[in-house]
Amino acid sequence: MAQWAGMELDLQGRVVLVTGAGRGIGRAVAETFLRERALVVATDVDAAAVGWAEPAAADAGTTSLALACDVRSDASVQAAVDAALERFGRVDVLVNNAGVLGEGLVEEVDASTWTTVLDVNVTGTVRTCRAVMPAMKRQGGGRILNAASFAAIVPSVGSAAYAASKAAVVQLTRVLAGELGPWGVTVNAYAPGMVPTELNGFREKDQATQDRLLDTLTLRRWGEPQEVCDLLCFLASDAARYITGTLVDVSGGKLATQLPQRAY
Ligand code: ADP
Prior knowledge:
Elements: E1 3-4, E2 7-8, E3 15-18, H1 24-35, E4 39-44, E5 64-68, H2 74-88, E6 93-96, H3 111-139, E7 142-147, H4 160-180, E8 185-192, H5 207-214, H6 225-236, E9 247-250
Bound molecules: adenosine-5'-diphosphate.
């Protein structure tokens, strides 16, 4: 079991619903909570991608539930939360990981890219939060963890839609923390840095580009999904009970120092 400062995080039996759990960081998050013996509801718009979380026939439904869930749809989100509640009776932790990138200069980005990025990343987060809120209020507690990005603070040119969406997620996190504080529900955002996934293809870029990107990271290496998972286990645990409304930077120092950097 994972420990934090000598304390057992003790996530066993917590019901954790993860959006975008089909691949990348979201899948690693769902797998990590399963290893911590949480009851995991792994959801994704791509139903086949969460097939990995289908419980084996032998231990049917004991720890995980794989569900199709498109965060662009109120009905789809409500159905996933209802299924989670029916199966496990509660939702202790909601991880809003589902997200899309969207490149393009403001002058050029097409309207549908802009709308989709905002719809998935911002409104999708609002939808899942609205759907779990009644249960968390009834339970008298819960944890909501929202995927932001260093881009919420230091954006790249050509990423207006993505950066604006992640900045919105940070502000939404603070407002939700205020709204849910009286029910003992904490709401926090986390900012991964450059974690190579299929979608962002960091590792497929040419060496010079990779070197330039790595030079912007204080720790000068790519992030690992597990490094984000470790933070989320902490934020989901009792050890983080007095932390709410904050953005936790897990970017290897992307936000820490000015560029370019020099190795001394
Ligand atoms: P990361 O590793 O940063 O989480 P990925 O692109 O690897 O990024 O994973 C994002 C996940 O979010 C993917 O599994 C993708 O299918 C999922 N996703 C994208 N759009 C939606 C959506 N509308 N609803 C639910 N999940 C989505």
